[in-house]
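Hi P.,

Sorry for the delay on this. The queue was packed all week, but I finally got your sequence through. Input first:
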Amino acid sequence: MSHVHTTEALHSPHGDAHGTSLIAFDDFCFAYDDVPVLRHITLDINAGDSVVLMGDNGSGKSTLLKAICGLIFPQRGTYRFDGTEVTERSMRDETFSKRLHSRVGFIFQDSDAQLFCASVEDEVAFGPRQMGLSEAEVTRRVDDTLALLGIEPLRMRAPWTLSGGERKRVAIACVLSMNPDVYCFDEPLAGLDAKTRDWLLGFLKQLKAAGKTLIIATHDQSLADEVADWFCYMGEYHGYDDRPHVHVNE
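Then the structure:
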């Protein structure tokens, strides 16, 4: 696998920093209470890429995922999704906001942060209902998603009664029922038992094989090696000279 040498290639592993990237950051800066978290991020991700964000705690991985999902906005620079700039103003447009959230799914590290309904069925139905789909289509999506993830027996269970691995599957089901183009995972294997880790790794490979865009923040090198097309290093560069890479947030 060839090395990446030029500045342009570092920010666009496809060798075209000015192409039609699905996700495009240009000099993106963001700070919490005047403490810089993302500094001058310029990054291009194409549809179908499987990208792993790596770096120490506090290096900005989770914040970058939030930006991709339209949950935070630049204080300098721009973020474009499929050619359209995502801003605080554009996200106040209900049609635009619904479209972005239907195309980009976010699976949090803590599944409990995502789950708030009385039953698993209601959790999985929530997103499709927010999209304004018919009840027949909502039911079809819920049934298909529960079957695909093997959690049909949990349908009427309250999320708080589930194990950690079961809650992770339900959190993924909530996103999967929206059938997004992009899946953002924040430390997806954290706190899972070996059986659930194996299942989730296989599921990520299935998403990749289906042509979905994966953006995964993780400290788990084995996961990164299994699914990454390329790496994005947040903070101090960690090496991996034998792999295509992007190094941002210097």
